[in-house]
Write a structure and sequence with these properties.
The structure holds 2 protein chains of 2 kinds. Chain A is built from 17 helices and no strands. Chain A is an all-alpha fold. Chain A has 3 domains: about 70 residues; about 55 residues, no CATH class; about 110 residues, Alpha Horseshoe (Serine Threonine Protein Phosphatase 5, Tetratricopeptide repeat), CATH 1.25.40. The longest helix of chain A is centred in the last third of the chain and has 24 residues. Chain B is mainly alpha-helical. In chain B, about 55% of the residues lie in helices and about 5% in strands. Chain B has a two-stranded antiparallel ribbon. Chain B has a two-stranded antiparallel ribbon with strand order 3-4. In chain B, helix 2 packs antiparallel against helix 5. In chain B, about 25% of the residues are buried. Classes of the chains: A mainly alpha, B mainly alpha. At the A-B interface, helix 10, helix 12, helix 14 and helix 16 of A face helix 3 and helix 11 of B. Chain A: This is ER membrane protein complex subunit 2. Chain A: Component of the ER membrane protein complex (EMC).
Chain lengths: ~325, ~300
């Protein structure tokens, strides 16, 4: 079992979420697990880290279906911060959505959110829950409306902009999605994952639009490059860079000798592609050796290998 | 108790066995130097002259020096917890419009600071035009109709009233203990010489170290009880940091410094401030901004920096 920091670092993946939630009894301190830890956690410090961990645990438990431990976490949080705390309200809503059996129960949650919001219109966690619930009820346009309303009030929330971009993309509204991701990047300009995400989005848009395709593909390459510049072993960045450069080469978007010096020439794009291929190969080799550590991104590795194979065959 | 002043300038306090109580200093009458109309002359003499010796009763330590220090530390801790208890968290926005008013400025600042690493020229221009026209027209204000009117009187505005109450509470937390302890020390311990510093100091420190002891000839190394109180008041910050953690509110000096320098802890939307003015100045900042983009030429840069290795 990895150390807790390991598990937290890869928290977005199901395996580590499961590992984390299996530690619930010892963290909550009422299980048969380790009495020593239980004794220390009854006198656990009343710190922000402690409650942050309990919140993480709650999310992990909900993902893995351990509703009882989730209830225990929630009880502890609402005991400490009071049931009227906004964040606790949001988590309670999340819990109720998770244990909802059918559509009807979810609708009931939605009604509950709306009553809460009519009392306090700026309850941000509940606003976000409402958007997520509308989305899972398959009402994306209502979700977009609600999210736009939220972002109108709080335009500096990168998470919400990212979600809006995702919603727009799911509805096929490419340019709106690009705008939203750019806003998210304006809040967090150095996050390489959002840069790579924007690159992916631009790449997808360039395949669907006709007139603007060359410009979008060029921007996509730029954002992938920026992402690599910020994190020089980011697998998704290299993967996307290979795809974007090969599209530029295939469709002859890059001129042999461009008039504007800022625009890369065909030769540069070609260099970039071979550089990205080499680096991706290195990354795959080093991560395949250290398999356990990169367990959470195994699917990424497989996809990258497949891409390299495709390139090897085409040559 | 006997007291004698020797001709060589030595001051002696001879505690007699019958009176173990702390010695009171200065005496009711004190020998003045015969010819010294100028204070600098006599103090120069005190520094150059033979070292002064004062025999202090050890009880001075147990009954004055120690109690003052302990009381100061305890008041600091008490003040910290009282401040924590009485502190009201800043009120979050009540309506969506109010929240927008608070965040709009931040959005402008974000665009100004981060546009260069994200946006190309077109999308930058679009955002800038949107924000500038919004700031100019007052679209981001809580109630655009009230624009241009002077801010409401803080006495009648409930939010302003609350902020003032908060400030008043903070001031009270500072004033009351300070007044009480100061008068307590003045009533019980004034006029004692309780400490000798192990190093020499210049005459300028006399007013700092010998408050309440009205002698001109006493060497600067001697510290009076009232001055010990002041030294504690100023210098216990690190002790509180050790006991209570670094972000404590025990030391009133730190709070006073904070008061004197409000720009250091100003949040963008203080109650008495007119957001419209802030918006207008931000619009101006955005308008004069020169755009460049780090994404231009990023391809060559990546190749140059990473591919060679």
């Amino acid at each position: 079992m990895g150390t807790p920091t390991d598990a937290e670092a890869n928290g977005s993946d199901v395996i580590s979420a499961l590992r984390l939630s299996q530690r619930a009894p010892e963290i909550l301190g009422h299980g048969p697990a380790s009495n020593a830890y239980a004794a220390s956690s009854t006198s656990a410090p009343d710190t922000a880290e402690e409650y942050g961990r309990i919140e993480q645990l709650l999310l992990a438990c909900l993902r893995t279906g351990d509703d009882q431990s989730a209830q225990a976490c929630l009880d502890r949080l609402s005991h400490r911060f009071g049931p009227s705390n906004e964040r606790v309200m949001g988590l309670r809503g999340l819990y109720q959505e998770a244990i909802a059996k059918d559509q009807l129960a979810l609708e009931k949650c939605l009604v509950e959110y709306e009553t809460i919001l009519s009392e306090n219109p700026v309850n941000v966690p509940i606003m976000k829950r409402r958007v997520a619930l509308l989305r899972s009820l398959r009402r994306p346009f209502d979700a977009i409306t609600a999210l736009v309303q939220l972002l109108d009030a709080i335009p500096t929330d990168a998470e919400a902009w990212g979600e809006l971009a995702d919603l727009y993309q799911s509805q096929g509204l490419g340019s709106q999605a690009i705008f939203s991701l750019e806003e998210a990047l304006l809040v967090a300009p150095n996050s390489w994952n959002i840069h790579a995400r924007l690159g992916e989005l631009l790449y997808v848009c360039s395949s669907s639009s006709d007139g603007d395709a060359a410009r979008l593909a060029g921007k996509s390459v730029q954002h992938f490059c920026r992402s690599i510049e910020l994190c020089d072993d980011y697998l998704r960045g290299f993967y996307g860079l290979i795809l974007a450069t090969s599209r530029m080469l295939d469709h002859k978007y890059a001129a042999e000798s461009p008039s504007d010096p800022a625009v890369p020439s065909r030769k540069t794009i070609h260099h970039l592609q071979s550089f990205a291929l080499g680096r991706l190969e290195n990354i795959i080799q080093s991560r395949s050796v250290d398999d356990q550590h990169w367990a959470s991104s195994r699917s990424d590795l497989i996809a990258a290998k497949e891409l390299l194979n495709r390139f090897a065959q085409s040559k | 108790m006997t007291r004698c002043l020797t001709t060589s300038g030595k001051v002696r306090l001879l505690p007699s066995a019958a009176t173990p109580r702390p010695t009171r200093w200065p005496p009711l009458s004190f020998h003045q130097p015969a010819i010294s109309p100028h204070p600098g002359l006599s103090s120069a003499m005190a520094i150059q002259g033979v070292e002064q010796t004062i025999l202090r009763d050890p009880a001075l330590f147990y009954w004055i020096l120690f109690p003052i220090s302990v009381v100061m530390i305890l008041t600091g801790i008490l003040r910290h917890y009282a401040t924590v208890l009485m502190n009201t968290p800043p009120k979050s926005a009540a309506t969506l419009a109010e929240s927008r008013e608070r965040h709009a400025l931040l959005r402008g600042v974000n665009l100004r600071n981060h546009a260069c690493s994200v946006l190309d020229r077109e999308s930058f221009e679009a955002r800038r035009n949107y924000l500038v026209s919004g700031f100019r027209s007052g679209a981001f204000l809580k109630d655009p109709n009230n624009r241009g009117q002077p801010p409401a009187n803080p006495m009648t505005d409930p939010a302003g009233m609350e902020a003032m109450m908060g400030m008043l509470k903070g001031n009270m937390m500072m004033m009351i203990p300070q007044t009480l302890i100061m008068s307590w020390i003045n009533a019980f311990f004034s006029g004692f010489v309780i400490l000798k510093l192990p190093f020499p100091l210049t005459i300028r420190f006399k007013s700092m170290l010998q408050t309440g002891v009205m002698t001109r000839d006493l060497d600067v190394q001697w510290v009076s009880s009232l001055s010990w109180y002041f030294l504690n008041l100023m210098g216990l910050q690190s002790v509180f940091g050790f006991i209570l953690g670094s972000d404590n509110s025990a030391n009133q000096m730190a709070q006073q410094v904070g008061m004197a320098n409000p720009a250091a802890m100003m949040n963008p939307m203080q109650p008495g401030q007119d957001p419209d003015k802030l918006f207008l100045s931000e619009a101006e900042n955005l308008e004069v901004m020169e755009h460049f983009c780090v994404l231009n030429g990023v391809e060559e840069r990546v190749l140059r920096n990473f591919a060679r290795r």
